[in-house]
Design a protein that fits this description.
This protein is mainly alpha-helical. The chain has nine helices and no strands.
Length: 245
């Protein structure tokens, strides 16, 4: 009975999607989701001969954890980590506010319909607007969850760093420093995933205007992320420094 009900619910949802969305709507949404997945995979799994900024900075994070072992006092390292945690907290708080605003609009899409009617455009059904806002909500929620987890991981990293002795010859000093570096990298990876989610949430707002606007915003977001990770001046400088070492 439970499986039958799930099938019925899925069938109802599919029927609602096909009856509410046009082919261009579905194409634009699918292209946005594909772009989000592809650029994320490419950034985290770049070509070996052309690493992304994320990969380059990951190596600097490992170097940081090795250098800080002999630093005394470690106030400088604590300040850096505190700044990283504040960044994740800020974006997580922003995500909560965005989720609240989107939930309010999903519950009452009337103002959006009124704006379209005032512009002499098709106001559309309430379900259509709720679907479009739900698409934006998807990226915002994913980003929020990534920011929260990144904040936790930076907390774990700080605890592990605090357990690393100042003496490199002490037992477990090197292994714990390397562990702190890997946890730091995982935290940064989740933070970057959250940022990408926010980028695509902004792009998803284009769907409120037209599917073509969504496609254009998606292409612009894709190019922005790619250029910053693989073609930016900062990436070139970090890559040259890594090669010199």
């Amino acid at each position: 009975m439970t499986i039958a009900r799930l099938r019925l619910i899925c069938q109802i949802m599919v029927d609602l999607i096909w009856s509410t969305l046009s082919l261009w709507d579905i194409t634009a949404v699918a292209a946005t989701l594909l772009a989000w997945a592809v650029i994320g995979w490419l950034i985290e799994h770049p070509p070996k001969d052309h690493p992304s900024v994320t990969r380059l900075v990951a190596e600097y994070r490992r170097d940081w954890m090795l250098v800080f072992m002999d630093r005394s006092p470690r106030i400088f390292d604590a300040q850096i980590l505190n700044g990283l945690r504040q960044g994740t907290s800020f974006f997580a708080s922003t995500g909560i506010l965005a989720i609240g605003g989107l939930m309010a609009l999903i519950g009452n899409p009337g103002p959006l319909q009124s704006v379209n009617a005032a512009l002499e455009l098709d106001p559309g059904s309430a379900l259509l607007w709720q679907t479009k806002l739900g698409f934006v909500m998807f990226f915002v929620v994913m980003a929020f969850l990534r920011f929260v987890w990144a904040n936790r991981l930076f907390g774990y990293c700080s605890i592990i760093m605090a357990s690393v002795p100042n003496d490199q010859t002490a037992p477990h000093a090197l292994s714990r420093a390397k562990l702190a570096g890997e946890i730091n990298i995982r935290a940064a990876m989740n933070f970057n995933r959250g940022l990408r989610g926010m980028y695509f949430a902004l792009a998803a707002l284009g769907w409120l205007v037209h599917p073509w606007v969504l496609l254009g915003a998606c292409a612009l977001t894709l190019w922005t992320l790619y250029s910053r990770e693989f073609q930016s001046l900062s990436r070139q400088l970090m890559a040259e420094r890594a090669d010199d070492d």
